[in-house]
Design a protein that fits this description.
The complex is a heterodimer. By secondary structure, chain A is α/β, with parallel strands linked by helices. Chain A has 6 domains: about 190 residues, FAD/NAD(P)-binding domain, CATH 3.50.50; about 120 residues, FAD/NAD(P)-binding domain; about 80 residues, FAD/NAD-linked reductase, C-terminal dimerisation domain (Enolase-like, domain 1, 2-Layer Sandwich), CATH 3.30.390; about 120 residues, BFD-like [2Fe-2S]-binding domain (Arc Repressor Mutant, subunit A); about 80 residues, Alpha-Beta Complex (Sulfite Reductase Hemoprotein, domain 2); about 160 residues, Sulfite Reductase Hemoprotein, domain 1. Helices cover about 30% and strands about 20% of the residues of chain A. Chain A starts with about 25 loop residues before the first strand and ends with a strand. By secondary structure, chain B is mainly beta. Chain B has a single domain, classed as Rieske [2Fe-2S] iron-sulphur domain (Rieske Iron-sulfur Protein, 3-layer Sandwich), CATH 2.102.10.10. A 3-stranded antiparallel β-sheet of chain B has the order 1-9-8. Classes of the chains: A alpha/beta, B mainly beta. Chains A and B meet through helix 19 and strand 37 of A and strand 1, strand 2 and strand 5 of B. The complex binds flavin-adenine dinucleotide (FAD), protoporphyrin IX containing FE, iron/sulfur cluster and FE2/S2 (inorganic) cluster. The site of protoporphyrin IX containing FE has 16 residues of chain A, from strand 32. Chain B: This is Nitrite reductase (NADH) small subunit.
Chain lengths: ~850, ~120
């Protein structure tokens, strides 16, 4: 397919400089036979076909084809012939000389000539550079091995098709638009594809965490392996690629590696020619470079500080270029772009800015049953960004609103439901729009409830959201139609309906309460925070500082050993395993089992205090020592020293078991009835390390004099002659609350078993950040008794679940950190010193 | 989509992979203010002086959500884009111009390095 078109006006060796004679058409030479170069000529022909004599140089041995359709060619949905834009006939008919397969290697601006690789030199009056982009190749060992390619032109597709014919494994490096389209095509061609993506979210430039998670899940469902947060260490193989090794040691065998990590404007030729280059070839609004006779369009240019990697801006550029070349200067003013992923069956759309910011408001709609996620970002009543997953029908409409900067204040409340809904009959008021819906319009997709049914239900006397949910089931499942049902209540009841939310929601990101969220996590077997946010229709893309920690805890509690704790959802103290103080330093409290210590521990603490210049050590109310003023960089070293003396984290910072306070009990005290100290140590050994809805304190006193103040603890033991009184739900804080007596047991083992069962009940049923006192205040101590005291089997099951969960949580977090885990949380990124800096 | 860097104007502080999403890391500046560099869950990067406008809490240690960080000391919400306190709280922390290019993070030199001449407004 070599279209070297001859030209009789040139001599045999082709090395002659052709200078146009006076009065002859000006000669326009185009470097780059790609999408922008040819489009520019099409635009020019449409305006003034006879104005210029045109010569096009192309590095590729092809006529002009639609590069974006290489993906369908790879996927087998199209052939090369299908994607040709301009056949050879077009060049002939328009008297365009195409010199294909012969790249231009030099431009001489003084002589106004270009020279190609074959040695051909051609003169120009006007020169248009449209060299596109070069794929970015990451500089890893093995990048030059045969079988390592990029995805840019027809040659790359041919190489991929050859490799695919032999089957086997393929690795695509880069989970952006290009990489995923390559992965999709190779999967359809029968290869076992692994996508390696450096970032944690696929297509992170275009998608947010929520949409990225959906996409990843869908691609995995199609058999691809998606490794996010994965960094390539090397590509290996003897004379041919055999696989890829990651920095974390993982090894993926592959006979083909496609690098799709990004592109750079192809500017080498222009730079050599001395043109002004920034990120690309700098052009003005008329696509003129720093040389008035040289123009540039396409991905190789930088306009107003922007470079583009999509075709839409090229069309705008080519229009203003052609206008300028035909003397009707209009000027290019930059482009807003939108992206669609071309993978059959996966609808992904994104446009504009969705990084949020001052005055930006996110409108989010999630429909888990249909796998839909929509997010529109509005600022000053204008759409400034949109991400759509699963249903992209309204992408064009949002993009249009965005580009035109249209005022959407009037339709804001209905915007997210799409064009049909929002502009339905020109109803600006959401109430009116809902009122105008036909009776058989579906309100609740989950339960198939129509508007007529909801209205009938309200008219039958169900005047609250809860009553409607209970009666006709509308909004009783996923909850995403809650707003619509409330509007219907308002429309139907008029002034009688003042609006309500039946439950207090977790936070402003959701219409669900804590209990609903927990129930659904368990019922649907959810496994990650993005999954919960998606399935429960969170109204924000990634939650807030209220719901993230709560979800993290609920998942942790629901999936002992099976959930990867999300550090980004933990408050600083739990992330740093120390207590932040007002000056930004930390305090460190090592565990002292039941308040007991020994010379070795005390010496180690004394040494730490001196070695790290801790300004203060204090005995806490929880019977242990608190070392103050430790810098975050020193924490791992401090912990290593304390670990060496046998001490572990005291979790004085956590929503977790804090401390078990004891008195000296029967071992020493003349009043003591039982070994309260020994029991306290046993309880602490059993319960330490457990995460809870809130902090949890325990104490054990040896007799009713109660020196350990057990009756203001979350769980307190008061020893008596005949056994152990177990107390629950006490608190010594702002609102002092004495414990309720749970029961009395005879043996130490029973005291331990009841303690474990009570903690598990609290862990499973209290809301995040609810201490035992308000929890028991809410559910009643009788309920707790019914579960712990009166239900032997239930108690035993709770205890077993607690101990199972503990088998995963009793690992000292300090030891892991001291051993180097998460070191970056403690280290500075770098340090800057005046006039020099160290990385 | 990559850029060449005018080395003189921008400080290269290393690859983006050094900060995992939802996290922040710090950059002490001798003779200047410590800077916190944030990586949001939306994969945006921001840099601010690491001092809450309320009572100088280390913002780098807060929970990041959207493009907001919740201060670890008293939970003020600070915009990573503008450095302004959000909601009913008032105050502002200086931001530092940042760009990401070819997988590396760059900070505007003049906003980082305390210079003898007047520091240009960031
Ligand atoms: C697989 C794939 C899928 C894509 N999908 C989409 C999509 O869905 N939507 C979208 O908007 N965009 C998509 N794009 C991007 C789109 O194709 C580009 O934005 C567009 O092709 C850029 O046009 P251009 O003319 O600037 O560069 P190109 O089309 O690359 O043309 C440049 C041409 O110049 C030639 N050339 C370079 N140097 C020389 C030289 N010295 N002498 C002679 N010739 C030279 C090159 O060989 C090339 O043929 C996709 C790209 C690829 C690779
Ligand atoms: C978030 C803010 C708080 C922090 C960082 C904090 C921190 C601490 C620390 C480090 C200890 C020593 C605990 C130990 O030895 O394990 C402690 C003890 C204690 N705190 Fe707090 N605390 C906070 C809020 C509260 C509140 C709100 C109350 C009241 C409800 C409270 C009541 C107590 C009591 C009674 C003790 C003594 C514990 C005991 O004797 O077992 N604290 N606190
Ligand atoms: S609670 Fe009773 S046993 Fe314990 S120290 Fe006080 S008096 Fe002695
Ligand atoms: S110091 Fe940041 S909120 Fe108080």
């Amino acid at each position: 397919m070599d279209f070297q078109v001859g030209n009789e006006s040139r001599t045999e060796d082709g090395a002659v400089i052709l200078i146009p004679a006076e009065g002859v058409r000006e000669h326009l030479v185009v470097v780059g036979n790609g999408m922008a170069g040819c489009r520019a000529i099409e635009e020019l022909l449409a305006r003034d076909a006879g104005r210029y004599r045109v010569t096009i140089f192309g590095a590729e041995p092809h006529v002009n084809y639609n590069r974006i359709m290489l993906s369908p060619v790879l996927a087998g949905e199209k052939t090369f012939e299908d994607i040709v834009i301009n056949s050879r006939q077009w060049y002939d008919e328009n008297d365009i000389e195409l010199i294909a397969g012969d790249p231009v290697t030099a431009i001489d601006r003084a002589a106004k000539t270009v020279t190609s690789r074959s040695g051909r030199t051609v003169g120009y009056d006007k020169l248009l550079i449209a060299t596109g982009s070069d794929p970015f190749i990451i500089p890893v060992p093995g990048k030059d091995l045969p079988g390592v390619i990029s995805f840019r032109d027809m040659k790359d597709v041919d190489t991929m098709l050859e490799a695919a014919a032999n089957g086997g494994g393929a690795v695509v490096i880069g989970g952006g638009l290009l990489g995923l389209e390559a992965a999709h095509g190779l999967t359809l061609r029968g290869m076992k594809v692994t996508v390696i993506h450096l970032m944690p979210t696929l297509m992170e430039r275009q998608l947010d965490e929520a949409a990225g998670w959906l996409l990843k899940t869908a691609l995995e469902g199609r058999g691809q392996t998606i490794l996010t947060g994965a960094d390539t260490a090397e590509i290996y193989g003897e004379g041919q690629v055999e696989g890829v090794r990651l920095k974390d040691g993982r090894d993926i065998p592959a006979s083909l590696v496609v690098m799709a990590v990004g592109i750079r404007p192809s500017v080498a030729l222009a730079r050599e020619a001395g043109l002004d280059i920034g990120r690309g070839i700098r052009v003005d609004d008329h696509m003129v470079t720093s040389d008035p006779d040289v123009f540039a369009v396409g991905e190789c240019v930088e306009h107003d500080g922007n470079v583009y990697g999509l075709v839409a801006p090229l069309w705008d550029m080519c229009r203003s270029l052609a206008d300028g070349l035909t003397d009707r200067h209009t000027g290019y003013r930059g482009s807003v772009t939108s992206t669609k992923l071309k993978v059959a069956g996966l609808d992904v759309f994104s446009a504009g800015d969705f990084s949020g910011g001052e005055g930006c408001e996110d409108i989010v709609l999630r429909d888990a049953s249909r796998g839909v996620y929509k997010r529109v970002v509005v600022k000053d009543d204008k759409v400034i960004g949109a991400v759509l997953y699963g249903d992209t029908a309204d992408g064009g409409w949002y993009f249009d609103l965005l580009r035109k900067g249209e005022d959407v204040g009037e339709i804001r409340d209905l915007l997210i439901f799409g064009q049909a809904f929002a502009s339905g009959g020109g109803q600006a008021d959401p109430k009116a729009a809902v009122a105008a819906l036909s009776d058989d319009a579906e309100i609740c997709g989950c339960n198939g409830v129509s508007k007529g049914q909801v209205v009938a239900c309200v008219e039958a006397g169900n005047c609250t959201l809860d009553a409607v949910r209970a009666t006709c089931k509308a909004s009783a499942s996923c909850g995403s139609c809650t707003g619509l049902v409330e509007t219907l209540l308002a429309v139907t009841l008029g002034d009688d309906y003042s609006g309500e939310r039946a439950t207090r929601t977790v936070c402003k990101c959701t219409s669900f309460g804590h209990d609903d969220v927990r129930r659904e996590i368990v019922a649907q077997g959810m496994k990650s925070i993005p999954e919960v946010m998606h399935k429960l229709h969170w109204s924000t893309p990634d939650g807030c500082s209220s719901c993230r920690p709560a979800l993290n805890y609920y998942l942790l509690c629901a999936l002992p050993g099976g959930y990867r704790d999300d550090q980004q959802s933990r408050f600083v103290n739990e992330r740093m395993h120390a207590n932040i103080q007002k000056d930004g330093t930390y305090s460190v409290v090592p565990r002292m089992w039941g308040g007991l210590t020994n010379p070795r521990e005390l010496r180690a603490i004394a040494d730490v205090v001196e070695k790290y210049n801790a300004p203060m050590v204090k005995v806490t109310g929880g019977q242990r020592l608190d070392i103050f003023g430790i810098r975050k960089e020193d924490l791992p070293a401090v912990w290593a020293d304390l670990n060496a003396a046998g001490m572990v984290s005291g979790h004085a910072y956590g929503k977790s078991l804090r401390t078990v306070k004891t008195c000296v009990g029967s071992e020493w005290c003349r009043f003591g009835t039982q070994d309260s100290t020994g029991l306290g140590v046993k309880i602490e050994r059993m319960t330490w390390g457990s995460w809870m809805p809130h902090k949890f304190k325990i104490a054990a006193s040896g007799c009713p004099r109660n020196c350990a103040e057990a009756t203001i603890k979350d769980f307190g033991v008061v020893c008596v002659d005949s056994g152990y009184e177990l107390h629950v739900g006490g608190n010594g804080g702002i609102h002092v609350r004495a414990t309720d007596l749970l029961c009395k047991v005879a043996t130490e083992q029973e005291a331990l078993d009841y303690c474990a069962a009570f903690i598990q009940l609290y862990r499973e049923e209290a809301r995040y950040l609810e201490r035992t006192a308000p929890w028991i205040g809410r559910v009643g101590v009788d309920y707790v008794k019914s579960r712990i005291v009166e239900d032997d089997e239930g108690r035993e099951a709770l205890r077993a679940r607690f101990l199972f969960s503990q088998s995963f949580s009793q690992e000292d977090p300090w030891a892991r950190r001291a051993g180097g885990e998460d070191a970056e949380l403690h280290q500075h990124l770098a340090e800057v010193r005046p006039m020099e800096f160290v990385v | 989509m990559t850029v060449s860097n005018n080395v003189g104007d921008w400080l290269d502080i290393g690859p983006v992979s050094q900060i995992s999403p939802g996290n922040a890391r710090t950059l002490p500046v001798r003779g200047g203010e410590e800077i916190a560099i944030f990586h949001t869950l939306d994969n945006q990067f921001y840099a601010l002086v690491n001092k809450c406008p309320h009572k100088q809490g280390p913002l780098s240690q807060g929970i990041v959500h959207g493009n907001v960080v919740a201060c670890p000391l008293h939970n003020w919400n600070i915009s990573l884009k503008s450095g302004e306190a959000l909601g009913s709280d008032e105050g502002c922390v200086p931001t530092v111009p940042l760009k990401v290019d070819a997988g590396r993070i760059y900070l505007l030199r003049e906003a980082v390095i305390p210079s003898r001449t007047a520091r240009k407004a960031a």
